[in-house]
Amino acid sequence: MHHLTWRARGAAVALLLTGCARMAPPPGGPPDRLAPVLLATFPESVAVLEGFDDWVVFTFNEVIDEGSQPNFGAGTGELERLVLLSPDTLVPRISWRRDKIAIRPRNGWEPTTTYRIELAPGLRDLRGNTLREGQVITFTTGGPLPTTVLTGRAIDWAGRRFVPAALVEAITPDSQVYRTLADSAGRFTLGPLPAGEWLVRVTMDENRNRRRDGRDPWDTVRVAAGRESVGEVWAFLRDTLPPRPNGATAATRVDSFSIAITLTQPVDPSLELGESAVRVLALPDSISIGAITALPSARHDSTYRAIDEARRAAAAPPLDSAAADTAGAARPVPPPRAPAGRAALGRAGATPVDTTDVPRDPRPPLSNRIVVRTTGPLRSGTRYRIEIEGVRAAGGAVGDILVVLQVPEAPKPAPADTTAAATDSVPPPTTRPDTGTTGQPRR
Fold first, then answer.
1. How many Cβ atoms sit within 10 Å of the Cβ of residue 224?
2. CA distance 38 to 137
3. Integer Cα distance of 364 and 302 in angstroms
4. Which residue of 29, 146, 269, 390 is surrounded by the most CB atoms within 10 Å?
5. Is-contact 119 89, C-beta < 8 A?
6. Residue 317 pLDDT class (50, 70, 90 cuts)
7. CA 45 to CA 140: how far, in whole Å?
8. Contact 83, 94 (CB under 8 A)
9. pLDDT on residue 299
10. What is this structure's pTM?
11. Which of these, 152, 146, 149, lies nearest to 167 by C-alpha position?
12. What is the rounded distance in angstroms from the CA atom of residue 83 to the CA atom of residue 409?
């Protein structure tokens, strides 16, 4: 037969593709331990290409690993996860061509639009050698060449650390979104982009899906036209709902005058609630023991540290004379520790870096705990009802808090050992002076 049916032809093509889908490294020869090298791009960056209707192509010096997950537009393919095409928000079409990777938007190129196509770090050759640097092509399908380059740094506010591989999005006033990834130290460079005002959003992309999900910490910074420095963007977890107690045991006794309450989201570090917004009632009679403040935990500690230290010093037992002689001797004070920089945040064994590389605009600690300060002491074995009005989360949502605290009973002292108090009614034996033997005194 000289002609095959369409079904037979389709089966033959499918068999051919199946056999060629996973290429093995060639046998023999010296081992290759070098990552792929980018030889050329089409089109060249940066260019104005009116009416462009072709594939964007990255060409390397060796065959690229297509990956074990198919790249069919679901966004789960290994190559699809490495491609960021902006400003299109759909998963792009990707064609693997041995030593080339070709990319184009799913719905085609739009006119008078600046496009940015980035291959994120992680591309591998057939021997598993991984490209550690990203590759970018930028061009426009009409209009002036883009010249704006936005730079900044991503920081995890709660963890107070730089965020590696953070998702960075620059959003135009007409909602076009350009994306890139921060490096291993949280730094990012995004551009060239069209001139104008930008809203830059940084997301801690914890599941690495290149999208901002509902539970990903994030924050935004507005950059005026003509500026390029974004500065530090402090990402944190936020919620549209007001803060709530985190479970039935959210309230715990810190000491005789402090109650800590754990919430479902971080609290605004500038929060300061006075006695008009806080009530602490002893149950079952609802007798107020007096509340002074409700503050974020770090702010409470700094506000009442001197008072607590003075109270503990007054309650401490006095030193005896021997201890007093040595108490005045000055102990050597260790030198202050240098602030932790990127060296403390990287992987174990990483190359040391400049330890002065710390956030330039430090913010107060972020926590999901608030501490209520009372005027009266918390009694053991007593239940308390704590009511707080106007608790503001770091994201801006405000809510009221109601929790119950059960202070446990104080441990009872152990009973005295009565067996040691019993004495022998028989007098101890004595030594007779005349013989040196023991026995009872002679009558």
1. 8
2. 12
3. 11
4. 146
5. no
6. low
7. 10
8. yes
9. 92
10. 0.71
11. 152
12. 61
